Request: fold
Amino acid sequence: MINNPFKRPIYLDNNATTGCSPEVFEAMKPYACERYGNPSSIHSFGGSVMPEIEKARWEVARLLGCTNADPNGHCTEIIFTSCGTESDSTAIRSALEINPARRKLIVSKVEHPAVLNLAHELARQGYQIVEVPVDAKGRLDMDYLTDAVDHDTALVSIMWANNETGNIYPVEKIAAIAHRFGALFHTDAVQAVGKIPMNMSESQIDMLSLSGHKLHAPKGVGALFVRRGVRFRPFLIGGHQERSRRGGTENVLGIVALGKAAEQAAQSISHENDYVKGLRDRLEQGIVSRIPKIRINGDTENRLPNTSLISFEFIEGESILMLLDQYGICASSGSACTTGSLEPSHVLRAMGVPYTAAHGAIRFSLSRYNTEEEVDFVLEVLPPVIEKLRSYSPYWQE
Ligand code: PLP
Reply:
């Protein structure tokens, strides 16, 4: 790592995944080698783990503001899963299965692949899929959505917050539109949980997906909120775990960790958001004032406090990431490079961001563990990196 005064990575990629909080790690540790019993066992060594699962369920329910989030009762609205993708798949497939007469699924063009690729698969199976477009700022075309919902619609699934731009979508309004025609509403809230205060007891949302590793719990655990009274079909059919709604021996470590992460998020959400937003704005304003020809993508009036998707025009995002990596700075680009292509992401394409800007898009996503000193280091390193890359670019003109 060149000139990195911290001698450790500067991690600004928290929408990809977050580090486990030390408290979360401490909470889950005993369930690996000491309290490893199966919670469904009759013996007390295993059975005594079950209350820990219920406690975690209550913490998740409390973070979401569920109606029956009561430490003495069981919150039946939370089902533990293995990840956000499983939660999304479960919700969408359940909504289609319980209402086979309805053949239409409405999503947005900017959903995460966990929803979008499933929608494409369902289209191959004969379902009618509507992808609601967005404008140049990534805001949903609400008229298009409203016109699309009808009596053939089984489910509307729109994300609460976008993982690339951070844009926040009007989920309550959309739920109300879906309900007018008797359709269900699901939201992929994987990027929103822990960053946006939620109150499911006063909400119209029927199902909501979340993922542990986006809120400082480890990878491999997620949850699905299913409102009480909403009919449901399990995706994983097997044992009677999770009240027969999700078969498979419980991931006790993950569940306990998610419970602790939810407890921490609930305690600190507002002050943490102010802190993280302060850092994000310091970074963004610092970049705007130091580097010419940049653009901030997304709906800057209405986005997550931790996310900034910035285009550095006329250069490739991957080159920027590689140079930043030499300093130990971790961020993401706005292209689908994991597929081996350098195509701009489907989100930037849906927004119609010009190619010269889409290719140079970098997503910085911060967390409570970042500091002003880290942001200032990025502001020191980034301008010469951009200047150097632009000096090689055949398209760059001052
Ligand atoms: N939905 C959104 C908006 C995401 O950002 C992600 C992960 O990046 C997922 C779903 C998938 O979550 P998981 O990695 O837990 O499967």
Observations:
- The first helix runs from residue 22 to 28.
- The CA atoms of residues 38 and 366 lie 37 Å apart.
- The first strand starts at residue 10 and ends at 11.
- The chain has a mean pLDDT of 95.
